[in-house]
What does this fold into?
Amino acid sequence: MYPACLLLYAFPRRFPVPSNLDDEEARQNLHRNLYIEGLVPLPEKALIHRLRARAATSHKAAIRGGVGIGDDCAVVPIPRGHQALITTDFSLENVHFKRAWHPAESVGHRCLTRGLSDIAAMGGEPLALFLSLALPRDLPQSWVDGFFRGLLKLAGKFKVSLAGGDTAQSPGGVLADIVVLGSVPKGKAVLRSGARPGDRIYVTGELGASAAAIDLLSRGKKIRPRDFLGHFHPMPRIEVGRLLREKGLASAMIDISDGLSTDLGHICEESGAGAEIEIDAIPVARKADLRFALHGGEDYELLFTAAGGKKVPSRIAGVEVRQIGVVTRGWKVWIRDKDGLKQELKPQGWEHFRK
Ligand SMILES: [Mg+2]
It folds into this structure.
C-alpha cells in the first residue's frame, strides 16, 4: 500500500539509479543524496502527500468512515445490506495501449474504465480503487502525471477514491493493474446466467468505435482522439447498470469488453441458452463498420437481456438503449440479415493491435 520506500520507483525521474540496489537502506540513502543534490524535485514523503492529496480531491468523503492511502491496508465499510463486488483488470503497454498512440491521460482513463465497467455490468456502485503500477525507469514524470490526471478525473466523476495500491520498477513497459471494490444490495447483483428463452437482448450506446480506432492506428493513420472518444475516453455505464438493477429490468448483463459476439456468447453459455440477433438492429458507431461492431472489443457498453413483459426505455440515464435480438433455446448465437437469412455468429473477439 504505497510504502514510502517504494515511491522512488513509482515516480522515476531521468537520473541514473543503479538497478542492482537490493538493499533498502542503500536505496533510501541514494534517494536522499540525489534529493540533496537537487536532482530529484520531490522527496518521497512529498510524493506520497501529493498522490494522497490528488486521490482525496477525487472524492471528498474519501472512504467514509474508513482509512485510505497511508496504512498497511485500506479499511472500507460496505453499506448495510450490501455485498462486495471486486474486479481486477490489467492495462499493459503494447497489449492494451501504446505510448505512441495513446496520450497518458487516456491510458489512465481507460485503465479505470475497465474496472468500473465490470462494476456497472453487475448493477453495482464503486466504493474504492486500488492500483498496482510498474513503471520503466526512463519513463518521464510528465507521463506519470498525465496517467494519474486521467484516472483521477474519471474517479472524481463517480465520486470514488484511490484507496491504495503498490508500485514497482518494471523491467519493460508500463504495467497497470486496477482493482475496483464496489457494492450491490444483497442478492441483487445482475449475473450473466439469468437469461431465459424469450427474453429480449439489448445493448447501450454504439459499438465498434474502439476497434475502428485501433485499426486505423495500426495502419499508420493519424487520428484525433476527439473523433474517437469511445476509444480514448470510453464512459463506464455505472448509472445505466444501477437503474437496470433497481428497476428489476435486466435478467442477465455483461459489459462489452471483448466484443459483442464474444460477450453475447458468455451470456448464452452461462445461461444455458442461445440467441438470435438482427444485423439491422446493431448500433454501429459512426466511424466503424459492422465487423468492428460485432467483434471489436473495449466499447464498454452494456449488453443485457430483459423478460418479454418488461418495458425497457429507449434511453436510460441519457444513453440510448436498443433491442438487437432475442434469447432462444439451444446454445448457438445466430445473426439474421434483412432478407431473413440466418448465419451462425461465432465469437471472434478483437485481438489487441492485430497486424
Ligand atoms: Mg466484464
About this structure: The chain has two domains: 4-12+41-185, 192-344.
